[in-house]
Design goal:
With 248 residues, the protein is α+β, with helices and mostly antiparallel strands. 27% of the residues lie in helices and 33% in strands. The chain starts with a strand and ends in a 10-residue tail after the last strand.
Length: 248
Amino acid sequence: MIRVEHFGTIDSTSLEASRRAASGNRGPVWLRADKQTAGRGRAGRDWTSPLGNLFATLLMPVKNDPAAAGLRSFVACLAVAETLDALIGAPERVTLKWPNDALLDGRKVAGVLLESGINAAGRWLSVGIGINLTHAPKTNRWPTTSIALATGRNAPTPKAALDILAKAFEQRERDFGAKGFDIIRTAWLARAARLGQNVEARLPHETITGIFETLDADGTMLLQTGTGVRRISAADVYFPGGADAAGD
C-alpha cells in the first residue's frame, strides 16, 4: 500500500502535491486533509471542504506521456465508483458523469482533478479526489448529495473511505498498466450516466446537443448530432430534463 500523510488543515492537498513536485518529489504518496481552506475543483473552481468529507490527492510518478497520464481520470473515477459501492452497498445507484464526476442517485457526490508536470526526476501526476461523505455543499452548477444524506446513515470516516479508495485505485492502476485503456474504458462505459441518451456539452462559445454514443480510445466523448459525430475533449456536460434542469 502507498503511504498516507495526514493533515488537520491545509490550503489544498492538490496544491501540496504541486509544491512537492516542484521540489523534485514524485511520490507515490497519498495526501489527506481533514479540512481545506482553498480546495480546488475542475477549471479552477472552488471545492468547498467542510470537516467530515474526504479530501485526498495521490502524487505519483508516471511515464513521460501526457495523454496516457490524463487517462488516469477514468481510472480514478472507476476507483471512486467502487468505493461508493462498498460504502453504500447499492452499485445501481452510482453512475459516472463525463469527464470526472461520480453521481449518487443522479446527484454529484464526488469529483476528480488531475494535474501533471515534469520535474528533474521525470513526469509526475496528482490525482485529487473529493467525496461528499457527511456534507453536500451546494453549487450552482449541479445538484449535490452526500453518503449520509442519500442513505440516512452515519457516513464512514474519511480515513476509512480513503483506505477503500486507495485499494480500489491500486487495482485499477494495475489493470491500466497491464492491459491498457481499453479495459478501463469498457468498465467506465458500463457505469456511464446518460450513455445512449441526449446530453448537452457546454463549451465556451457554443452548446452542442447530441446522443452520447461512446468514449473514443483517448477518452474523448463522441456525440451523435444532427450534423454528424462531434468529438468533445473538454466541456461541462448537462442532462436536458435531468436532475440539473432546474439549474441549481
